[in-house]
Amino acid sequence: RDDDDINDVASMAGVNLNEESARIMATNSDLVGTQIQSCKDEPFLAAIPLHKRILETAKKLGITDVPAEVVTFISHATQNRLRTVIEKVTVITQHRMESYKDDEWYEQATDVRSQLKFFEQLERLEKQRKDEQEREILLKAAKSRSRQEDPEQARLKQKAKEMQQQELAQMRQRDANLTALAAIGPRKKRKLDAPGLLSVGGEGVGLCGGSQGTASPRQYPRQKITRVNLRDFIFYMEQEREMSRSLLLYRALLK
């Protein structure tokens, strides 16, 4: 043996790697270096429409012939560019969807959602107060017994009458809904089938042998979907140097 290393399994088995390599090279010498690519080069875009489009653009610049290699190169460049755009926009979307509520290194300073709810509640109370004032004015106008009424008083009386009719219709509709719900009865939740049972004709059929055996339900992995919106694309175009002043960004901002 060339060396006495006990970890050399090939030498311990009596195999000479140098002789085997020389024998393989001598046997397949005509095939070594001839196979350049193992898979077919599939263009990303349709070759014929892309070639026509390139020729239309090239004729405007005085070019009459465009070889097929140019079409393939542009197709691969488009695929690479699209992959880069999708990867960057996906990262932007994932950053936007990140939540820092449960992160111990972040502390909430302001709660805009609670502030908006508070202002909405104030507006609701103010609207309710104005409605109550208007209702009191209309009720006073409806109860007035003056013989000589001006047009404004007659208009208030008519409006009060319409308001009372509307409230009466709402009360009737509410009573009808409550009666219908009482007739239907309480809603029952649908019971899930027991694990390992297949429901056939309303009867449970066991999937496993034995009286006590039950099969665990199959769990399908839920695929995570990243939803990209227009704001993510706009943010991406604003960060890119070649697209920050483009017409495409201007059109996207107008939408």
From TrEMBL:
One Gene Ontology cellular component: transcription factor TFIID complex
Cross-referenced Pfam families: TAF4
UniProt entry keywords in alphabetical sequence: Coiled coil, Nucleus, Transcription, Transcription regulation
Coiled-coil spans in chain: 115-174
Biological process, per Gene Ontology: transcription initiation at RNA polymerase II promoter
CDD domains (UniProt xref): HFD_TAF4
Family: Belongs to the TAF4 family.
A GO molecular-function descriptor: RNA polymerase II general transcription initiation factor activity
Protein name: TAF4 factor
Gene: Taf4_1
Domain called Transcription initiation factor TFIID component TAF4 C-terminal: residue spans: 6-252
Compartments where located: Nucleus
Claim: Coiled coil is one of the keywords in the record: yes
Entry annotated with the keyword Transcription: yes
InterPro entries listed in its UniProt record: Histone-fold (IPR009072), TAF4 (IPR045144), TAF4_C (IPR007900)
